Amino acid sequence: MGRLVVVSNRVGPLKDTGRAGGLAVALVDALSQSGGIWFGWSGDVSEEGTFGQLKTQTTRKVQMVQLDMTQADYDEFYAGYANRTLWPVLHYRLDLAVFDRRFEQGYRHVNERFATRVAPLLESDDIVWVHDYHFLTFGANLRAMDIGNPMAFFLHIPFPAPEILAALPNASSMVRAMLAYDLIGFQTERDAANFRRFVVEELEGTDLGDGRLQISGGEVIARAYPIGIDAEAFSKFAMSPDARRNMGRLEKLLGGRQQIIGVDRIDYSKGLPERFRAFERLLEDYPENRGRVSLMQVAPPSRAELDAYIDIRRQLDEMTGHVNGRFADLDWTPIRFLTKSFPRRALAGIYRASRVGLVTPLRDGMNLVAKEYIAAQRAEDPGVLVLSRFAGAAEGMKEAVIVNPHSAEEVAAGLQTAITMPLEERRDRWQIMFDRLCRNDAVAWSRAIMSDVRTVAR
Ligand code: ADQ
After folding, report:
1. Per residue in 330-354, pLDDT tens?
2. Which partner for 185 in 154, 199, 211, 342 could form a disulfide, CB atoms 3.0-4.6 Å apart?
């Protein structure tokens, strides 16, 4: 069996992966099984950029190799095409997308430079596994250098319907470049079907069934591989001393009242203003919850340099003030909005102390918070997940209370269902979801992809 070479925008950590979440756990598991390299951006900007020295760190079987970018690369590739063009378009937000030819050129340039730097490190029987929307064209660059190794790609975010993607200038050329990978993995059946439809309708490919596509004489796999979390480990986190400490503090503060928890990066895809509005609607439509149910939203700021994110933050501050001003009482604050991040064990305790997990993105590739919330619950008295139908997670978590995040009325009704759900029903729903999470965990996910990529004949 050959080594594994993983390429992703950010790399690591190799140790203490529990802190970084399911993805790092899965990748380090895969890397340490076969040995290999994890290659990506160092997070630093320098004058030499991608032409500079490789920064290397080696543990027993795994090498971490990182590369800088120039300021222009950062602006065009990362802040530009990746975050201002692909992120909004792939999340169905054409209204927020910026189309700038320089961004696309910078993106293609960085992909090519990364490929040029990775190619000399490859051995003939290595498997290459590339991650996410930063590296759509990277595989085609490797192929242009006559690299014939098996290559898998996984898209962590949604793949939109062809009718949406067609608005991206050069969409066909981007998707054609993706076909250089032998296997293209998606979070959901819907995403994989959208991709196959694009290839059939726009690129004259043939759908052979079973997630196989034929194009220009070659075959690729384009299937759903829903990402999992390290469910058993996360469930243990929820019983750790750190988790108990946080739970204790919260339970004391709540004094028998119920808490709804939201945990998200601040991003327009997460539907945060809509969520705050839905909570206000809960207090309007079901007044018995006033003084008895509160919302805690934890949201570390992300990509703060983008105006769109600063606007959301301001909007959420205003909405918190508005709802609290309208409904708060001496001993009860309806919304608590915390813009900080928590260690994972502490987070597990916060989930466990909360009767309802509220996960209402307008669009999300998967959403790991939904899975973590379930993994952290007490088997004998679990909370209820209220989940957006537009999160990839909804495809595999049908026992959650599924809602349309655009409708404040519907989310409020879903919250009311969750708050009043009898214990037996909560247990039944939870058990099915928890068992499924343990079966389809992060390690099973990466093993499925690694096993399928070997079946594609070149
Ligand atoms: P994200 O958009 O980042 O990931 P998500 O899947 O929810 O979204 O993962 C966020 C992670 O960050 C979770 O593990 C969560 O616990 C953690 N986190 C968030 N806020 C935190 C806080 N305040 N403190 C500590 N930890 C916090 C992208 C895609 C998703 C896809 C994942 C994985 O957008 O759709 O599920 O990749 O493929």
Report:
1. 999 999 999 988 888 999 999 999 9
2. 154
What single DSSP character describes residue 265? -
Domain ranges of the chain: 4-228+442-456, 231-439
Nearest by Cα to 271 from 126, 388, 99, 430: 388
pLDDT tens column, 154-179? 999 999 999 999 999 999 999 999 99
Rounded CA-CA distance 185/179 in Å is 12
Per the residue annotation, which of 73, 132, 156, 191 is the catalytic one? 156
246 alpha carbon to ligand 1 midpoint, in Å? 20
Q: Facing residues of 280 across strands?
A: none
Residue-level pLDDT at 28: 84
Q: Which helix (H) or strand (E) holds 78?
A: none
CA 158 to ligand 1: nearest atom:
35
Which distant-in-sequence residues (6+ apart) come within 8 Å of 241 by Cβ? none
Please confirm, yes or no, whether 156 is among the known catalytic residues: yes
Give, for ligand 1, the residue of 368, 385, 397 to mutate: max count of ligand atoms closer than 8 Å to Cβ. 368
Both structure tokens of 324: 């609290």
* pLDDT tens per residue, range 371-394: 999 999 999 999 999 999 999 999
Beta strand 127-131 with 4-10: parallel, antiparallel or unpaired? parallel
SS3 19: helix
pTM: predicted TM-score of the whole model, two decimal places:
0.96
Tell me, yes or no, if the two domains 4-228+442-456 and 231-439 fold the same way. Answer: yes
Count of CB atoms within 10 A of residue 59's CB? 12
CATH superfamily of 4-228+442-456: Glycogen Phosphorylase B; (3.40.50.2000)
Of the options 3.40.50.2000, 3.30.565.10, 3.40.50.720, 3.30.360.10, the CATH number for the domain spanning 231-439: 3.40.50.2000
> Atom 20 in ligand 1: which residue has the minimum CA distance?
264
Q: HSE (CB half, 13 Å, CA atoms) of 26? A: 23
